[in-house]
Amino acid sequence: MHPRVADAAAGYQDADDQLGQVRLLRAEPAEHAGHLRQPGGLRPLRGRWTRGARRVAVGNAVIAGRPIVAGSAEGDALVTREALSFWGGYDFHTGAIIDKHHPLAGVCAAGRVLAVPFTKGSSTTTAVLLEAVRAGTAPVAILTTGVDAFFALASIVAGVMYGKSFPVVALEPRDFDLLHTGDRLIIERSGSVRKKP
pTM for the whole thing? Predict the structure, then answer.
């Protein structure tokens, strides 16, 4: 493990020096046991939602999320209901989605809030996102429907290595469905997602 990543991992539970993986702060028991994924993607957060989440009741303008990697950002939303493979599906040179079978093929995610329910693939997601952060072509934030260790690891390592991390926030599926491409979103450190009028 890179020494700077090891230093950053000190504040996170279960840093694994042999595999170079960092588990998430406040990981749930199922996450520790490795039960994050199910057929077709990540496990939704149903049933455990209120722990760590902050609900703000201001009509439909504010969505409560669970900050996986806390941070603040603002940008136009780029929303998909389908999983995305970053290896071969995201061009880190330009920030464009290049998977020609994906509904967002040809659209640039650089500088936007990318809302994707979960990833396809594995640790290559982390590698591609790290290169995008280094190149300045990464999304400013990522919203998902479950805890995604690959997004989180990319943000944590980018913060350590490049001084540029991005918020990763998990939303309940029903809240994720409220998002639309073009919405101007403000992500707060608490995990709240506000739609800017």
Answer: 0.72
